[in-house]
Design a protein that fits this description.
The structure holds 3 protein chains of 3 kinds.
Chain A: E1 2-4, H1 8-11, H2 15-19, E2 38-41, E3 53-56, H3 62-73, H4 80-84, H5 90-102, E4 105-110, H6 112-115, H7 121-134, E5 139-144, H8 151-162, E6 168-169, E7 176-177, H9 184-190, E8 196-199, H10 203-206, H11 209-217, E9 220-224, H12 229-233, E10 236-239, E11 249-252, E12 258-261, H13 272-284
Parallel strand pairs in A: 1-2, 1-4, 2-3, 4-5, 8-9, 9-10
Antiparallel strand pairs in A: 6-7, 11-12
Helix pairs in contact in A: 3-5, 3-7, 9-11
Chain B: E1 2-5, E2 8-11, E3 16-20, E4 23-26, E5 29-31, E6 49-52, E7 56-60, E8 62-67, H1 72-80, H2 82-86, E9 90-91, E10 100-101, H3 108-118, E11 120-128, H4 133-141, E12 147-153, H5 158-165, H6 169-183, E13 187-191, H7 195-198, H8 220-234, E14 240-243, H9 253-262, E15 268-270, E16 278-279, E17 287-288, H10 290-299, E18 303-306, E19 313-319, H11 322-332, E20 337-341, E21 345-354, H12 359-374, E22 381-382, H13 396-404, H14 406-414, H15 418-421, H16 435-450, E23 466-470, E24 485-488, E25 491-495, E26 498-499, E27 507-511, H17 518-529, E28 547-551
Parallel strand pairs in B: 1-6, 2-7, 8-11, 11-12, 12-13, 12-27, 13-14, 14-15, 15-18, 18-22, 27-28
Antiparallel strand pairs in B: 1-4, 2-3, 4-5, 7-23, 9-10, 16-17, 19-21, 20-21, 23-24, 24-25, 25-26
Chain C: E1 2-6, E2 14-15, H1 21-24, H2 29-34, E3 36-39, E4 42-45, E5 50-53, E6 59-66, E7 69-70, E8 80-87, E9 99-102, E10 118-121, E11 144-147, E12 163-166, E13 182-185, E14 201-204, E15 215-220, H3 224-234, E16 246-253, E17 261-268
Parallel strand pairs in C: 1-6, 2-7, 6-8, 8-9, 9-10, 10-11, 11-12, 12-13, 13-14, 14-17
Antiparallel strand pairs in C: 1-5, 2-3, 3-4, 15-16, 16-17
The chains are: A alpha/beta, B alpha/beta, C mainly beta.
């Protein structure tokens, strides 16, 4: 098992014990002792205590390290000096590659230390491609360690209704996808939208200042169980019942397994779903705005 | 009450072959004409709407017995190919119409519009893992207009395989029944039996009578025989639906014919048979063995099949056959997606293009058609492309054209590379399908195989799912692309090619008989092997908004 | 000649794929004024945002800060667009012929998946120049893109043929997954240039940090450079090739794919 760019001990606290590292499996009866765990990160986090091998990669060098590994597993040459700029030696990478090939079932869990740092989607792409190519040698899989809340569920539902996971525009009457053009932070930073409805997120706490400033300028509506940073700069805040505690639904686990949410406690507030339905009905009651009868060109 | 008058009716289940007669509909069902068929409106009670179908063909709504349109695997594929979505047919948001994208992996709303837009009204999602069945049901619910059913992946389910290896067939039967009800599905699917379990080791199960990784005495043949027996004992309306071992591999004709022997004495449905009818021993000498497969199939009257035909152009291969998909990835060097479902199954996705210049693809294209022409009983072979593996379902009209027009078909064969023409027999086949036979392979036959008594026909009591086509093919030679009208449960949902209405459609499910005590067996095994709470595993019935439930009783031997 | 003068800044991005020589060549002034443009989800008219003069021409001049106007010149096959000001995203995407000249800045996706023609931007441009749209296997298939200022990420990503020349600094992933063609970097680039390259040539006159999957091959002046230099100087780009002045250090890679791409980095004599 390779954990790369993530700190599961603190960020996914049940991962080791429930899913991955310490569980006794039918074909791994020794549990922890039947596994080798490698942690790749820029610093030694508490997760390193659980690792058999800790590889400290230099910040901003994950892409180079993964690419070098792709070459090494194929027996292709790499430049030693340039490899060493990653903070690791060719020998260390070769050792990792050999261990990966010797495994009967290998897995790489990669976290936001990759997907949110310089390189972004290409960092993720590098790990995914490495895992895919490892299948020429042995069984290997790969999984992202996703963020909190139901981000996976949003991804799943958007994909089956629009064909795309995020960064979607419906402005031309049909779904279009272009991260960087329609993704949230980029839209807000450029000020490309003139209204915002925020649900289940707090951009006012996490986003770059130009994005926050823009949210303050335009009509912003927030649906949240709590008054958030974003609520404070919004025009409207609607308190809603917390999902999973008071509002029912379905959540998708990181591996896209759907799980039912049964509310445990009552809430005086409406659910997000109630509020959105009522907004939609109110909008539908307004004079019809007809979309264009046809699309002029095959835009997109 | 609605009356369709003046059209040529094709209703093979009731022996109607192009007879001009009225079809009367009331409360969503076909009813007998109150006037005894004379045409005089004697009802009086309700205002009748009449559709003048003069000069048109009236068909029972199409039934797709094998397609991949909903669930985790298909959704994974959607994410893998944004470039396909970018050029896919666009469905604009409008009054009563949801936005969507067509293409090879249509979004849920678009799937319903595309099927209904062609005159297909019932769709069978061919592969559902229990663990993610809730996801499949969500997507099926969002697939408008058409009625749905789905099949549960079982042939690599480790709990079931363990029981089969131990010879505990009776207990296996109760477990399978419990799983079917837990997942709220209609039938049982077997994909590459043993092979997907072996894929968790990076291996496959290529020999029918040899064991595979993780097991010692269990063989694919025993899984097939065991599951077929269980399905028969549970009296499921649809037989065991089987994707044979060695899909896509040159020389797999031997596996297919041997599999038919294993299934003797049982009902079974062989999925996408085209992919299982190859001779040769490598890609360079691969050739058609459709004749041998058809001959064996013709002799085994206990079997039905669907064609899984290939059409040249873009496709996306999506199957639970993990090892096959990895092989395809290595052959093509293109994108690859792989998902393992803990303890149950897996899936693989590889976008693919079938080229008429490719010898292998040319053979594949021919084999699907050869099977449909060489299998003599149209009630046993159904029109599919294993969407989106062989081609998109909205291209079925192209296959109809190839079946009905021998000159056109032969002209297409002559366009293939010379070497390819020598590896197939299609040029020698003169058979042409009649409209009556087309109605069988696209509607009446699959409905019967699915055991849906009210589908696939226009007799009294049938669900009023009707497709009305112009009599002549369009400029492209296609007859079924643009129905004039499509009715679903007696309501006009498509008029002149435009989707104008439609509800959410129903989901057909079965409740097999099982001993409730089997949960005491399943629960501890589940807690040990799975990573969720046992109480969260089953799909609650409330998740299905419009279930159509069939309760069954078992017939143990 | 058609002149479009921006009279009203769109409040949100304006999608104006109709502003293409292929469309305007056959249309009268009145028809051009009535062409649909998209302000968010609203369909508006060209003349809601532009003063329009002239018609029935494939020569278009756009005046003003059109940095929020997207898809100018989409899929054009002929004619000329001159932007006296800035241009928005997707400028000349899918074009196969004709010329686009921008005096100011461009944005992201300039010349995306183009297959012919010439785009010249005097100022800076964004990222994904001549690139493949997300998921697509191939970017620019031919044509020429010249950027006078800087450019962003993924310049020439998955390009197959054609030339991209950027005079100013370039950010990460220039030539990512390149399949062919040529990228000229006047000032070098930041990280990961040529990453996962299959084929193609990246010529840099400034420093370029290399991936560990590239290795040094030789120092020389390749024969084809003389020809390239002549062609590029006709477009205003100077490529040194005089051996008395220096030579190119050649690196090959990317061995992770494995690829047969090359990166040529100019090393002045005495440096």
């Amino acid at each position: 098992m390779v954990y790369w760019g993530g700190n599961p001990a603190e960020c996914h606290p049940r991962h080791f014990t429930k899913y991955s590292l310490t569980q006794k499996g039918r074909f791994v009866p020794l549990g922890r002792k039947g596994r080798t765990m490698v942690l790749v990160d820029i610093r030694e986090t508490p997760s390193a205590k659980a690792a058999d091998i800790f590889l400290q990669v230099r910040p901003g060098k994950d892409f180079e390290m993964a690419t070098a590994l792709r070459a090494i597993i194929k027996g292709h040459p790499v430049d030693s000096a340039l490899v060493e700029e990653t903070g690791l030696t060719v020998a260390q990478l070769q050792d990792l590659a050999d261990r990966m090939k010797r495994a009967k079932f290998g897995v790489i869990f990669f976290g936001m230390g990759l997907s949110m740092t310089r390189g972004k989607h290409m960092n993720s792409g590098a790990i995914l491609t490495l895992a895919a190519e490892m299948n020429a040698f042995t069984k290997f899989v790969c999984m992202p360690m996703r963020g909190h809340g139901n981000v996976t569920g949003a991804d799943v539902v958007l994909r089956y209704t629009t064909g795309y996971p995020f960064g979607i525009s419906l402005s031309r009457g049909f779904p279009r996808f272009n991260p960087g053009e329609f993704s949230t932070i980029d839209l807000l930073v450029r000020g490309d939208n003139d209204a915002a409805l925020i649900l289940g997120a707090d951009p006012g706490a996490t986003m770059p200042q130009p994005a926050i400033d823009h949210l303050s300028r335009i009509p912003t509506i927030v649906l949240d169980p709590k008054v958030t940073h974003t609520s404070r700069l919004a025009r409207v805040h609607i308190t809603t019942a917390p999902t999973g505690i008071s509002a029912p639904g379905t959540v998708y686990r990181m591996d896209e397994v759907p799980l039912p949410l049964r509310p445990a406690l009552p809430s005086p507030y409406p659910t997000d779903e109630d509020v959105i339905r009522r907004i939609r009905l109110a909008v539908a009651a307004k004079p019809a705005w007809e979309p264009p009868a046809h699309v002029t060109m095959a835009i997109g | 009450m609605l009356r369709i008058t003046g059209g040529k009716v094709y209703d093979p289940a009731n022996g109607v072959n192009g007879v001009v007669k009225d079809i009367c509909i009331d409360n969503g069902r076909i009813v007998a004409p109150a006037d005894g068929g004379s045409g005089a409106d004697t009802s009086g009670a309700k205002a009748a709407r009449t559709i003048d179908a003069s000069g048109m063909l009236v068909f029972p709504g199409g039934v797709d017995v094998h397609t991949h349109v909903a669930g985790g695997a298909l959704n994974f594929a959607r994410g893998l190919v944004p470039e396909n979505q970018r050029v896919a047919r666009k469905f604009l948001h409008g009054k009563g119409r949801r936005a969507g994208l067509g293409g090879m992996t249509p979004t849920t709303f678009a799937t319903g519009y595309l099927y209904a837009g062609m005159g297909w009204t019932t769709v069978n999602e061919a592969a559902v893992p229990i663990l993610t069945a809730k996801h499949t049901h969500e997507e099926l619910h969002d697939t408008p207009i058409v009625d749905k059913s789905c099949l549960l992946l079982m042939a690599n389910n480790e709990m079931v395989l363990d029981l089969l290896e131990a010879g505990e067939l009776e207990r296996a039967r109760h477990v399978v029944a419990w799983l079917i009800w837990a997942a709220k599905v209609y039938g049982v699917k077997a994909v590459n039996p043993g092979g997907v379990a072996a894929w968790k080791w990076g291996k496959n199960a290529s020999a029918l009578h040899e064991s595979f990784e993780g097991y010692t005495t269990l063989t694919p043949a025993k899984i097939i025989a065991g599951l077929a027996q269980i399905v028969d004992q549970l009296q499921l309306p649809h037989p065991l639906h089987l994707h044979c071992n060695n899909l896509g591999i040159p020389g797999n004709v031997a596996t297919t014919v041997e599999t038919m022997k294993v299934l003797e004495g049982r009902r079974a449905h062989l999925a996408h048979l085209q992919f299982h009818a190859y001779g040769g021993d490598g890609w360079s000498n691969m050739h058609s063995e459709a004749a041998a497969v058809a001959e064996a199939f013709n002799q085994h009257s206990n079997l039905t099949c669907d064609a899984g035909a290939v059409l040249f152009g873009d496709a996306v291969t999506i199957t639970a056959d993990g090892p096959w998909q990895h092989l395809l990835y290595q052959l093509t060097g293109r994108k690859w997606g792989n998902l393992d479902v803990e303890n149950e199954t897996g899936c693989g996705i590889v976008p693919y293009v079938y080229k008429d210049r490719s010898l292998v693809n040319a053979v594949q294209w021919a084999v699907g058609l050869e099977l449909m022409l060489l299998i003599t009983d149209p009630w046993r072979v159904f029109l599919t492309t294993d969407h989106p593996n062989g081609g998109c379902f909205w291209r079925y009209p192209e296959i109809v054209q190839l079946l009905m027009d021998v000159e056109f078909r032969k002209a297409q064969v002559r366009r293939l590379p010379e070497v390819a023409q020598q590896r197939i027999v299609l040029a020698d086949l003169d058979r042409q399908y009649s409209l009556y036979e087309i109605a069988i392979i696209t509607s009446a036959g699959p409905a019967r195989a699915l055991g849906m008594a009210n589908k696939g026909h226009l007799g009294v009591g049938a669900d009023a799912d009707v497709a009305i086509y112009p009599e002549k093919p369009n400029a492209d030679g296609l007859l079924f692309s643009y129905p004039r009208y499509v009715l679903k449960d007696g309501e006009i949902v498509v008029e002149e090619g435009d989707v104008i209405g439609g509800s959410e459609g129903r989901e057909f499910i079965v409740r097999p008989e099982y001993d409730g005590a089997i949960e005491d067996y399943i629960r501890p095994l589940f807690q040990q092997a799975y990573t969720m709470s046992f109480d969260n595993y089953p799909v609650s019935l409330e998740r299905l908004r419009h279930p159509e439930q069939v309760n069954l009783s078992s017939k143990p031997e | 000649m058609i002149t479009l003068t921006l009279k009203e800044q769109p409040s949100v991005p304006l999608e104006a794929e109709v502003l293409s020589p292929d469309v305007t060549a056959q249309l009268s002034t009145a028809d051009i004024r009535a062409l649909p443009v998209y302000l968010g989800k609203r369909q508006r008219r060209v003349d809601d945002f532009f003063e329009v003069d002239g018609g029935s021409s494939d020569q278009i001049t756009i005046r003003g800060d059109a940095s929020r106007v997207k898809w100018l010149g989409r899929a054009m096959t002929r004619g000329r667009i001159v932007v006296d000001g800035n241009a928005g995203m997707h400028l000349g995407a899918y074009m196969s012929g004709g010329t686009i000249e921008v005096s100011g800045n461009g944005s992201d996706w300039v010349g995306a998946e183009m297959s012919g023609g010439l785009i010249r931007i005097g100022g800076n441009a964004g990222g994904q120049i001549g690139a493949a749209y997300r998921g697509s296997s191939t970017g620019m298939r031919d044509g020429t893109i010249l950027i006078g200022g800087s450019a962003g990420l993924e310049v020439g990503m998955r390009m197959k043929r054609g030339i991209i020349a950027v005079s100013g600094p370039v950010r990460d992933f220039a030539g990512l997954q390149m399949k062919g063609g040529t990228i000229v970097l006047g000032c070098g680039a930041e990280l990961r240039t040529g990453a996962w390259m299959i084929r193609g040539t990246i010529i840099s006159l400034g420093p370029v940090p290399l991936m560990p999957t590239f290795s040094y091959a030789a120092t020389y002046v390749p024969g084809f450079l003389r020809i390239y230099s002549a062609y590029l100087s006709s477009l205003g780009i100077t490529l040194p090739f005089d051996e008395r002045r220096g030579a190119y250090r050649r690196y090959t890679g990317d061995t992770s794919v494995p690829g047969k791409g090359e990166i040529l980095i100019w090393a002045p004599r005495g440096a």
